[in-house]
Design brief:
Number of domains: 1
Number of strands: 7
Radius of gyration: 15 Å
CATH superfamily: Nucleoside Triphosphate Pyrophosphohydrolase
Distance between the termini: 21 Å
Order of helices and strands: EEEEHEEEHH
Shape: globular
Number of helices: 3
Protein backbone atom coordinates (compact mmCIF):
# COMPACT_ATOMS: atom_id res chain seq x y z
CA UNK A 1 0.00 0.00 0.00
CA UNK A 2 0.94 3.66 -0.29
CA UNK A 3 -0.35 7.10 0.70
CA UNK A 4 -3.37 6.64 -1.60
CA UNK A 5 -4.26 3.36 0.10
CA UNK A 6 -4.37 1.56 -3.25
CA UNK A 7 -2.42 -1.64 -3.94
CA UNK A 8 0.51 -1.27 -6.35
CA UNK A 9 0.97 -3.54 -9.36
CA UNK A 10 4.52 -3.71 -10.76
CA UNK A 11 5.21 -4.24 -14.47
CA UNK A 12 8.16 -4.40 -16.86
CA UNK A 13 7.92 -2.97 -20.38
CA UNK A 14 10.15 -3.41 -23.43
CA UNK A 15 10.98 -1.40 -26.54
CA UNK A 16 12.10 -4.40 -28.58
CA UNK A 17 14.24 -3.70 -31.63
CA UNK A 18 15.26 -5.88 -34.52
CA UNK A 19 18.89 -7.01 -34.61
CA UNK A 20 19.08 -6.16 -38.34
CA UNK A 21 17.88 -2.56 -38.15
CA UNK A 22 16.17 -0.09 -35.85
CA UNK A 23 12.63 -1.42 -36.36
CA UNK A 24 10.48 -1.55 -33.21
CA UNK A 25 8.28 -4.54 -32.39
CA UNK A 26 4.65 -3.73 -31.60
CA UNK A 27 2.08 -6.21 -30.33
CA UNK A 28 -1.71 -6.33 -30.52
CA UNK A 29 -3.66 -6.95 -27.33
CA UNK A 30 -6.61 -9.36 -27.53
CA UNK A 31 -10.07 -7.97 -28.24
CA UNK A 32 -11.26 -9.16 -24.80
CA UNK A 33 -8.36 -7.49 -22.93
CA UNK A 34 -9.49 -5.96 -19.63
CA UNK A 35 -7.69 -2.63 -20.01
CA UNK A 36 -6.80 -1.90 -23.66
CA UNK A 37 -8.73 -4.27 -25.97
CA UNK A 38 -7.55 -4.75 -29.55
CA UNK A 39 -4.89 -2.04 -29.41
CA UNK A 40 -1.29 -2.04 -30.66
CA UNK A 41 1.37 -1.32 -28.05
CA UNK A 42 4.65 -2.49 -26.53
CA UNK A 43 5.28 -5.85 -24.83
CA UNK A 44 4.85 -5.92 -21.06
CA UNK A 45 4.64 -8.36 -18.17
CA UNK A 46 3.91 -8.30 -14.45
CA UNK A 47 7.05 -8.46 -12.31
CA UNK A 48 7.18 -11.62 -10.21
CA UNK A 49 7.94 -11.16 -6.48
CA UNK A 50 11.24 -13.06 -6.84
CA UNK A 51 12.69 -11.15 -9.80
CA UNK A 52 14.05 -7.76 -10.73
CA UNK A 53 12.81 -5.55 -13.54
CA UNK A 54 15.58 -6.52 -15.98
CA UNK A 55 14.81 -10.21 -15.38
CA UNK A 56 11.14 -9.57 -16.11
CA UNK A 57 12.06 -7.78 -19.36
CA UNK A 58 14.18 -10.79 -20.36
CA UNK A 59 11.23 -13.08 -19.56
CA UNK A 60 9.03 -11.14 -22.02
CA UNK A 61 11.13 -12.69 -24.80
CA UNK A 62 10.35 -16.40 -24.37
CA UNK A 63 7.02 -16.11 -22.56
CA UNK A 64 5.34 -13.43 -24.66
CA UNK A 65 7.21 -13.41 -27.99
CA UNK A 66 9.00 -16.77 -28.36
CA UNK A 67 12.45 -15.17 -28.67
CA UNK A 68 15.52 -14.46 -26.57
CA UNK A 69 16.02 -10.81 -25.65
CA UNK A 70 19.12 -8.92 -24.59
CA UNK A 71 18.15 -6.11 -22.25
CA UNK A 72 19.91 -2.83 -22.89
CA UNK A 73 19.31 0.71 -21.62
CA UNK A 74 16.79 1.90 -19.08
CA UNK A 75 14.29 4.24 -20.77
CA UNK A 76 11.96 5.48 -18.03
CA UNK A 77 9.59 4.70 -15.19
CA UNK A 78 6.27 5.95 -13.98
CA UNK A 79 3.18 5.23 -11.92
CA UNK A 80 -0.43 5.79 -12.94
CA UNK A 81 -3.71 5.25 -11.16
CA UNK A 82 -6.02 2.55 -12.50
CA UNK A 83 -9.42 1.54 -11.22
CA UNK A 84 -8.71 0.07 -7.78
CA UNK A 85 -4.90 0.09 -7.99
CA UNK A 86 -1.76 1.90 -9.00
CA UNK A 87 0.41 0.59 -11.84
CA UNK A 88 4.15 1.19 -11.51
CA UNK A 89 6.30 0.24 -14.46
CA UNK A 90 9.77 0.55 -15.91
CA UNK A 91 10.61 0.62 -19.62
CA UNK A 92 13.84 -0.81 -21.05
CA UNK A 93 15.28 -1.18 -24.52
CA UNK A 94 15.84 -4.79 -25.62
CA UNK A 95 17.05 -6.48 -28.78
CA UNK A 96 16.06 -9.85 -30.23
CA UNK A 97 19.22 -11.99 -30.13
CA UNK A 98 17.71 -15.37 -31.04
CA UNK A 99 14.52 -16.50 -32.73
CA UNK A 100 11.68 -15.01 -34.71
CA UNK A 101 8.77 -13.44 -32.82
CA UNK A 102 5.51 -15.34 -32.71
CA UNK A 103 2.29 -14.84 -30.76
CA UNK A 104 0.51 -16.08 -28.77
CA UNK A 105 2.88 -18.28 -26.83
CA UNK A 106 0.52 -21.09 -25.83
CA UNK A 107 1.27 -23.01 -22.69
CA UNK A 108 3.77 -20.48 -21.41
CA UNK A 109 1.95 -20.20 -18.09
CA UNK A 110 2.94 -16.56 -17.90
CA UNK A 111 0.71 -14.14 -16.06
CA UNK A 112 -0.75 -11.25 -18.00
CA UNK A 113 -1.70 -10.75 -21.61
CA UNK A 114 -0.91 -13.08 -24.49
CA UNK A 115 -0.84 -11.03 -27.68
CA UNK A 116 -2.80 -11.85 -30.84
CA UNK A 117 -0.50 -10.31 -33.45
CA UNK A 118 2.85 -8.58 -33.84
CA UNK A 119 4.76 -6.60 -36.46
CA UNK A 120 7.96 -4.64 -36.99
CA UNK A 121 7.49 -0.89 -37.40
CA UNK A 122 10.21 1.47 -38.64
CA UNK A 123 11.58 3.43 -35.70
CA UNK A 124 10.48 6.68 -37.37
CA UNK A 125 6.84 5.43 -37.35
CA UNK A 126 6.77 3.78 -33.90
CA UNK A 127 5.49 6.82 -31.97
CA UNK A 128 2.56 7.26 -34.35
CA UNK A 129 1.80 3.52 -34.22
CA UNK A 130 1.42 3.50 -30.42
CA UNK A 131 -0.29 6.90 -30.10
CA UNK A 132 -3.84 5.47 -29.91
CA UNK A 133 -3.10 3.11 -27.02
CA UNK A 134 -1.21 5.92 -25.26
CA UNK A 135 -4.31 8.13 -25.51
CA UNK A 136 -6.24 5.35 -23.75
CA UNK A 137 -3.86 5.36 -20.77
CA UNK A 138 -1.13 2.83 -21.58
CA UNK A 139 1.74 3.60 -19.21
CA UNK A 140 4.44 1.88 -21.28
CA UNK A 141 3.60 3.68 -24.51
CA UNK A 142 3.40 7.02 -22.73
CA UNK A 143 6.85 6.43 -21.27
CA UNK A 144 8.05 5.56 -24.78
CA UNK A 145 6.51 8.71 -26.28
CA UNK A 146 8.19 10.84 -23.60
CA UNK A 147 11.53 9.15 -24.31
CA UNK A 148 11.41 10.10 -28.01
CA UNK A 149 10.26 13.65 -27.33
CA UNK A 150 6.66 13.11 -28.47
CA UNK A 151 3.51 14.24 -26.68
CA UNK A 152 2.36 11.86 -23.95
CA UNK A 153 -1.22 11.51 -22.72
CA UNK A 154 -1.10 10.53 -19.05
CA UNK A 155 0.17 12.37 -16.03
CA UNK A 156 2.38 9.96 -14.14
CA UNK A 157 2.31 10.18 -10.37
CA UNK A 158 6.06 9.76 -10.45
CA UNK A 159 7.99 9.77 -13.69
CA UNK A 160 11.78 9.68 -13.80
Amino acid sequence: MNASGLPIEHAAFAVVTSPADADVLVVKRPDDDEHLPGMWGLPATPIEPTEGVREAVERIGPEKLGVELEVAAFVGRGTIERVGSLLHGELYEATVVDGTPGVPQSGSGTPGTQYTDWRWVPEADAAETVREIARHGSLCTNLYLESVGAESYVDCIDAR
